[in-house]
Structure prediction request, 418 residues.
Amino acid sequence: MESAATPTAAEINGVLSNPESPEKAASEETVTVDEQIQCWHPVLRPIMDSIKPSLPTDVSNVIGIGFYVTFWQLALYDVTIPGKSYEDELSRQHKRIATISSNRADVTAAGARKREAEKKQISNLIDRLLSENKEHLKAFAESKARLSKEKAHWFVGMHNKSEVLLMALMEHCFLPRVLLSPLDSLFSFKFLKFLHTSGTTNFRTLGFYDLIFRPNRLTSLIFMCTSKEADNLGRFLHEILRDLARWHKDRSVYEKEAWGSKKTLPGFSRKVSSTGKPETFLHYEDFRRLLYKWHQHMTAALQTCLSSTEYMHIRNAISVLKAVAETFPALNFHGNQLQRLISSLGQSEQGDIKVPSLSLMADLNKAEKSWILPQAFRKGQEKVSEGSTITPKESTPVPAAASLNAEAVEFKPSPTSG
Prediction:
């Protein structure tokens, strides 16, 4: 039977383990110094030695120099293959060849030679695309093999220290890289997904997301960004929210990707053993309640920024909301609250506030038809247990005895005559 309570702070940060087991994982005890050295790429070892004296203590003692150097050395090219982009472009070029072949506007010998020359040029482009894709596949396979070898040596000794590890990763790795550029923002998400899908020991995906969606952190982060950095942050949040939305829609997808097909991924577990193996998992309905809380926090952070008198608060919040508008907000009352704020900003005399506000308003109006009621987003009311990270005021009360239709339209009372 599924638990009805939103996961506690201890469960989110993975500090629950078998008290009779030794705190240090057995797998960590067997890692020798030689194995630690040999697992890193030989070209990177001198770099690790040279930068070690100048790195912050959190990087050396918490994250580990090996992970830190790998994270900053890799690029998006190494961790993902845009397979659909290659397929779409190849299909487009083949259609161009078919169009040229069927063109009979010029039936002269010169016209035929021109068509053949154009078709040959396109065929050469197709060959280059196929060759590039082949090289990319080879580089990706090499990178994946390297990361699979290295990951056993990441975060060694961090069992039951998940919150410290996640804070260090956020400060020294993910946030700085997310803000660099659109490609680095996407890289950060892809690398985050690798940490989850590969079952990296001592890495808690659940705790990482909970850390991101803290309202005070989001508010401060949005304010401190430049305009371009806010766009990059928005893209990173969009990738996360879009991925979580897929899980929210389908229990089987959630259980397969969050837990692993063999239930071996620790990222969304409630409790892990001393060896880092998951023992109990965050159930689907508990995940939906937790995602509801994250949406609440995201809305609160954006409302704070959009209601501010500070220009950068407002401008950056518009950029972030514009980036995530495809999947957020997902609840009707969140959307309505944000619509009212954006609508008022659309009356601003500042052009660089008014114009993007009007554009964003169009996006929100377009997405409005897909917004749902809280009862359809998650079942029941959050039951707050001791140590929970959600407070009663964040939940939407639902009468216990009421039989609710999750798909019912929102009630709108008709005006009465005096």
Remarks:
- DSSP finds 20 helices and two strands in the chain.
